[in-house]
Amino acid sequence: LDGVGAAAPMERGPEPGPEPGPELGPQPGTPSCSTQSHPPTAKDDFQFILCERCQQESPNLKLLTCLHTLCLDCLSENKPIGQCPVCRTTIPEASGIPNVDNVLFINLQARLSVFKKIRDSEGPSCSRCRGEEAAVWCSECEEFLCTKCFGDHQWFFKKRSHEARRLEELRAESAHQFLEDTRKPSNIFCSRPGHADQGLISSIYCEKCKAALCCSCALLDSQHAPFCDIRSETRRRQEELSSMSQELKGKRSGFEATYAALEAEAARLEEAQREMRELIRQRVEQLVRLVRREEEELLGLVEARQEQGRRELARELQSVAGVLRRMEASGRLVEKMSLYATEQEVMDMQPFIKGSLEELKKLQPPPAGDRAQPGDLAECRARLQAL
């Protein structure tokens, strides 16, 4: 992600003369440069698309059921196998490698790498002739083009409306603006086997099958019904994720209060142990060398009384901390889905994320009465009195 960040707009030099044909710049009917203002982008703005363990870019990012994202390398080296290394949530797959790719983060990495090339001081070369410096980026073809190749491109695609923009304009944008401008509606292909390979684009969603269909499937197969527009379905799924995320934010306060109470109880347990150790030392120091052995026995007794409570509190703290990390990861992922996900990414990832959010909603903070209590020190006090 080095180099991905806001910078002062570059001075524009003389523009190369266009080849005869369509005018160089945004095509009619295509969105122009986003006018939304963003604060200067720091490197940390897009740390969320990296592996949450090694903090590195990877084309193999996996989404766990706890909604943490890790690369394949970290999951392969993960010990113990079957647990998320961030929050220790169980990984259902026996191999410890989830089946779901985080296509949102993978695609964002690819789009940011394009932006990095645009902002590079040397500038990208033409993707077609490989010799000339690129002057235009076509978001439809995902290619950098020099002035001459852009003229050929416009002639070849004259019946289509490809959005092409000058690199000078793109360099003046922030990474946020570039990602928003390149988040365009994507084609969703028919879910029937073989139809996706034929390029049959779907605009219909079957609510019964919960799948995207092309017009042929919807018309010829009477078993599919009722229908709705695929765009409406993607919006509904996005809104459903946002609603579930808001509900989890309401439950978060309960887990935070439990975590704070557990921390306070652990501190009280440590303080009780510290006070008893000090009292033991003060009393034993008054005795002769013959009772030093008694001092060690008393210290061991205190440790034995407190160890069980400390272990139980540590387990509860780890469990609640894991739930909080999962909630944080879910909120962050849903937020980034709303900001940057294409419709294809929503369709691919929403059912999996929804299942994880429903699992989170079922969790409840452990009741206060079940927590471990400090060990009984009455026996220790009695032996001290006897000394």
Provide the fold topology.
Blueprint: E1 61-63, E2 69-71, H1 72-76, H2 103-119, E3 136-138, E4 143-145, H3 147-156, E5 164-166, H4 167-171, H5 175-181, E6 188-189, E7 201-202, E8 204-206, E9 211-213, H6 215-220, E10 227-229, H7 230-284, H8 292-340, H9 343-362, H10 378-386
Antiparallel strand pairs: 1-2, 3-4, 3-5, 6-7, 8-9, 8-10
Protein name: PML protein
Domain RING-type: 51-88
Organism: Brachypteracias leptosomus (short-legged ground-roller)
Describe the structure.
There is one protein chain. The protein is mainly α and 387 residues long. It has a domain at 44-101: Zinc/RING finger domain, C3HC4 (zinc finger) (Herpes Virus-1, 2-Layer Sandwich), CATH 3.30.40.10. The protein has helices at residues 72-76, 103-119, 147-156, 167-171, 175-181, 215-220, 230-284, 292-340, 343-362, 378-386; strands spanning 61-63, 69-71, 136-138, 143-145, 164-166, 188-189, 201-202, 204-206, 211-213, 227-229. The strands form four sheets. It has a three-stranded antiparallel beta sheet. Helix 7 (230-284) packs antiparallel against helix 8 (292-340) and helix 8 (292-340) runs antiparallel to helix 9 (343-362). The protein starts with 60 loop residues before the first strand and ends with a helix. The model is unreliable at 1-42 (pLDDT under 50).
How would you summarize this macromolecular structure in one to three sentences?
One of its GO terms (biological process) is innate immune response. This protein is mainly alpha-helical.
